[in-house]
Task: inverse folding
């Protein structure tokens, strides 16, 4: 890229590079920005990104390893004084948790019996995939995390990601050994949620602040300060009931969510692989389907259901 | 040359890896830009525009940003800084630091504008300013590491 030996001095002063080539690189950068916008990201560029992150994952893991050890030293010394008190509190919590665990097991058995009786095929208990965070730059343009698990371990795009307390985001890019997680606080994050108490629906919208806001609430939505917010599963991409945070009003009176995930650092996470719920489709080519004019009547809802109406969908959310 | 490549790779790794020990604002300086700037000052021939471009692209990929944003910002700021050095860059530490501040003053607005255009709304300025401040303040430390190396003794007027 240097213009030539004749223009280069031995002491490296005054070295010049080809202007045409530099301008060409400027243009390439601008073209890349145009084609890699989050709204219109090219699949080829997405796979290029995944390939590079896969290659860099071992190096990032190695770089972060010493800090994982060091970061535990501070809390360890800070907690020494209150260790006995904390221990007693934890014992009490453990006793309470035993009661809730027994109750959960009872309810699980009951649910299985009901599901068998009703012939409902609800999603099986999810396997979770544990992964360390490999990259955590909180840039101005994107809030994401790079995690050390990819398609090889079953991670797929759209899968929810949680830390020990709650949802942190969803997978948006997958490589074979690494994946990128878009945080709930990112500008492009949109997650359908609901209040656990009242089932009031909303969309959790990230705005790069610590507390994402609740949009698309109905005018008289039954929401109160401190309501537990969970995923609603309305998009069919995320399962229902994942813990998100607590509702609270900001100074302008808008509803926001204090994320549960903020209680702990996002260093170790779990990915919950989730099969999206298929949308109900009427297949015009199917032999079991009524004639096409009957289909139209069915869709319009102005006639009675045909005798050979497809069986109700199973496998969705109960 | 090996040291330059190693330095650039390490700067990217340290910039992207989760190195925050305590909760709070991310005080990580723009290590890739600092390393590019230092090498382009002491060994300009090691840092042709294509290297700046590649480091910018890798920075974008590892931080999950839009491809091209940091490549454009690095290229523009370092190219402008170089265009002022027809007779070779100065190596006195004071002027070098000031030149780095100028590079930061170009790179940050370019990255902010390009990033805002890419995401379709105004990006928050605060994280960029924090990174810029951290870079400006930590630049002497990184420069000192270079000066301590025997092969580069004589750089920065040391």
Result:
């Amino acid at each position: 890229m240097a213009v030539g030996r004749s223009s280069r001095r031995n002491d490296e002063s005054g070295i010049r590079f080809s202007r045409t080539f530099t301008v060409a690189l400027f243009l390439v950068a601008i073209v890349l920005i145009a084609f890699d916008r989050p709204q219109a990201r090219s699949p080829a560029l997405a796979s290029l990104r995944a390939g590079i992150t896969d290659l860099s994952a071992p190096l990032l893991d190695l770089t972060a390893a010493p800090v994982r050890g060091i970061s535990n030293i501070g809390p360890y010394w800070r907690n020494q004084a209150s260790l006995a008190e904390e221990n007693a509190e934890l014992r009490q919590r453990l006793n309470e948790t035993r009661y809730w665990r027994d109750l959960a097991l009872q309810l699980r058995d009951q649910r299985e019996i009901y599901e068998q009786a009703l012939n409902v095929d609800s999603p099986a208990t999810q396997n979770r995939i544990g992964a360390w965070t490999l990259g955590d730059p909180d840039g101005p343009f994107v809030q994401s995390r790079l995690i050390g698990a990819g398609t090889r371990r079953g991670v797929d795009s759209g899968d929810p990601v949680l830390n020990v307390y709650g949802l942190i985001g969803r997978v948006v890019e997958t490589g074979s050994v690494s994946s990128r997680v878009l945080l709930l606080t990112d500008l492009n994050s949109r997650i359908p949620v609901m209040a656990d108490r009242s089932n009031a629906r909303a969309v959790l919208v990230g705005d790069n602040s610590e507390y994402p806001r609740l949009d698309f609430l109905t005018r008289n939505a039954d929401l109160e300060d401190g309501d537990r917010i969970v995923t609603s599963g309305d998009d069919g991409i995320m399962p229902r009931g994942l813990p998100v945070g607590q509702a609270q009003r900001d100074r302008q009176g808008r509803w926001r969510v204090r994320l549960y995930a903020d209680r702990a650092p996002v260093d170790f996470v779990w990915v919950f692989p989730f099969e999206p719920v298929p949308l109900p489709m009427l297949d015009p080519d199917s032999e079991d389907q009524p004639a096409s004019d009957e289909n139209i009547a069915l869709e319009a809802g102005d006639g009675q259901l045909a005798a050979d109406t497809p069986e109700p969908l199973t496998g969705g959310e109960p | 040359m090996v040291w330059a490549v190693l330095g650039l790779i390490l700067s990217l790794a340290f910039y992207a890896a989760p190195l925050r020990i305590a909760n709070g604002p991310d005080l990580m300086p723009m290590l890739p830009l600092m390393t590019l700037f230092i090498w382009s000052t002491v060994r300009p021939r090691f840092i042709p525009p294509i290297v700046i471009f590649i480091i910018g692209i890798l920075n974008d990929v590892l931080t999950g940003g839009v491809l091209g944003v940091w490549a454009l910002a690095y290229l523009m700021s370092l190219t402008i800084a170089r265009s002022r050095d027809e007779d070779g860059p100065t190596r006195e530490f004071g002027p070098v630091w000031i030149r780095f501040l100028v590079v930061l003053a170009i790179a940050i607005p370019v990255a902010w504008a390009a990033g805002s255009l890419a995401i379709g709304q105004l990006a928050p300025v605060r994280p960029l300013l924090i990174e810029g401040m951290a870079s400006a303040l930590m630049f002497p430390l990184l420069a000192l590491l270079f000066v301590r190396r025997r092969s580069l003794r004589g750089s920065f007027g040391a």
User: Anything to note?
Assistant: The first helix of chain B runs from residue 2 to 16.
